[in-house]
Amino acid sequence: MSKSVSIKVQLSALPNNPGVYQFYDSDGKILYVGKAKNLKKRVSSYFNKKQEYGKTRVLVKKIHSIKHIVVATESDALLLENNLIKKLLPRYNVLLKDDKTYPWICIKNERFPRVFSTRKLIKDGSEYYGPYTSMKTVRTLLDLIKSLYPLRTCNYDLSKEKIEAGKYKVCLDYHLGNCLGPCEGFQTEKEYHDQIEDIRQIIKGNLKSSIQTFKQQMKDFAEKMEFEKAQRVKDKIDVLENYQVKSTVVNPKINNVDVFTIISDETHAYVNFLQISHGAIIRSHTLEIKKKLDETDEELLQLGITELRQRFNSQSNEVYLPFPVTVDDGLKVTLPKLGDKRRILDLSERNAKFYRQDRLKQIKITDPDRHITRIMGQMKSDLRLSEEPRHIECFDNSNIQGSNPVAACVVFKDGKPSKKEYRHFNIKTVEGPDDFASMEEVVFRRYKRLLNEEEPLPQLIVIDGGKGQLSSALKSLEVLGLRGKIPIIGIAKRLEEIYFPDDPVPLYLDKRSESLKIIQQLRNEAHRFGITHHRNKRSKGAINSELVNIEGVGEKTAQQLLKSFKSLKRIKEASLENLTASVGASRAKKIYKTFHK
To answer: How confident is the model over 399-403, as a mean pLDDT?
Structure first.
């Protein structure tokens, strides 16, 4: 049975239920795992239409067999898909970049529980809070707890029988006031567990309960005239309130909420997760996702939400999102538009942007190829091109008051100057300062030569100027039969507008856009290169005219002198003997006499 018939039969057998599908190649290797609200419709769509993206077309060609798993709901499909991707690591699925172990805060399952940080989860009935994305956060929390509550740090088995038998003696921590001595029965189990309950609330971000408890203690000590003890409790209240001020960034009424936003480019997406409890951010983490099949932001955000909630064991029953996506059943979705909720969503987005910027700076140093690929992909998208502009050429005219008109062509390969391919043009067919006609001439000369020599053509031409210069360049491309074959744009200096052929409305790129920065760099380099040539030519013309004015010196002799001495200054300072060696005795005497009157 041929592959097409086999696939056809497999498609006809698919149900119209939600579930997860898996694509395999002819060797039985997993290619892709996906989820669907309707398995039959989603999987059939891969084969019923021409795929827009090249990577997807390659995937479809390799599919040899299809497996599926039916589940009850779309949210179940989401969870199953996420687990299968991590387990099977299919070639065409997105790559979640994170394999490190994160720290947790453990409240040990003991009669008098210890509280400490750990990276290992042991299923012994102990409570684990986290994981935290930063050890610094864990230390800050544990330092806060330690300063407020005297807890034991020893690992003794403090059973009732052993304490009553007097098996243990208090250690130095007791004498320093860091522990109240439960090992000798100086602290009851109830008192200790009341402290642990307060600690649970602090870890969850709810400081209100602890502050109220300490305020009551302070009041009781004050009524008993025990002012030193009251002052010590007041210090603890100050520590808690100071911590609360630092950590509270939104309305304290916002409680147990997960916030997710996404920033993406051509190759990667960055999903930021903020967890909020009692108005305080208790966790922030950004997940980097490598794209494989031009996935949409909706698909990637959905994947990110599932992965991050699983990874950090989130129990929140509400999420704030920038746009609607399918989430777990029973999870409330809010799309904030203004107020505190909108501000916290903006904060999450800002975190994702900062993370992306940091990663791009690192990648620029450690992985320049990926950096170039990303910028080229961005330019392709921003400038509506059919392919990445790996080879770009930019033209600029240079003339001052119509004298010595010249033009420059600079070449960028992979976003960087290729200086050995830069070219100067002396304008030959245009009289006077006519930028439009000059542009028409140099574009024609440049591409006629490339065609004659069968050299590769650029994937983008940039013209320094607005609609007029762009139209002139287009005339030359039309004559050469290249119009429509090479994308061409004009950049006007005033507001950095990008003009396209046959489109009167310019494109305005974001001033911080990397695409605009590359175009500006091209334009500036072409201007610099053209001006340098123009100055050299003008300077040479001035030297020539000064030499030609000497009796007996013509254009040819002037050129010979410049060739020998390199500059007018050296000619003026040259000895009679050196001048004679260059142009003969008769002319040498006249030149020497002119400059040594």
So the answer is: 50
Would you state the pLDDT for residue 260?
95
- Distance between CA 550 and CA 591 in Å, rounded? 7
Mean pLDDT score of the chain: 81
pLDDT in tens, 404-436: 577 888 999 888 888 888 888 877 776 656 778
Same domain? 462 vs 580:
no
DSSP symbols for 291-356: -SS---HHHHHHHHHHHHHHHTT---SEEE-SS-----TT-EEE---SHHHHHHHHHHHHHHHHHH
Whole-number pLDDT of residue 263: 92
Q: Which residues, 6 or more positions from 3, have their beta carbon under 8 angstroms from its beta carbon? A: 64
CB 491 within 8 A of CB 519: yes
Structural domain that includes position 49: 7-88
Per the DSSP assignment, residues forming a β-bridge with 515 are none
Q: Starting from the edge strand earliest in sequence, which strands make up the sheet with 115-118, in order?
A: 115-118, 104-107, 127-129
Helix (H) or strand (E) holding 595: helix 585-595
pLDDT of 248 > 50? The answer is: no
pLDDT digits (tens, 9 = 90+) for 530-580: 776 545 555 454 445 566 667 767 767 777 777 777 676 777 778 888 888
- Termini Cα distance of the chain: 102
**Number of domains, the chain:** 5
Query: Which tens digit of pLDDT belongs to each residue from 295-310?
Result: 889 989 998 998 888 8
Asked whether residue 495 falls in the same domain as residue 573, the answer is no
504: CB partners within 8 A, 6+ apart: 467
Contact 111, 308 (CB under 8 A): no
* Separation CA 411–CA 428 (nearest Å): 22
pTM over 0.70: no
Instruction: Give pLDDT, residue 543.
Output: 47
Among 97-101, 266-270, 400-404, 445-449, the minimum mean pLDDT is found in 400-404
Q: How far apart (Å, rounded) are the C-alpha atoms in residues 358 and 272?
A: 14
Q: Establish if 379 belongs to a structural domain.
A: no
Establish if 541 belongs to a structural domain. no
**What CA–CA distance (Å, rounded) separates 385 from 300?**
25
In this structure, how many other beta carbons lie within 10 angstroms of the beta carbon of residue 414?
A: 17
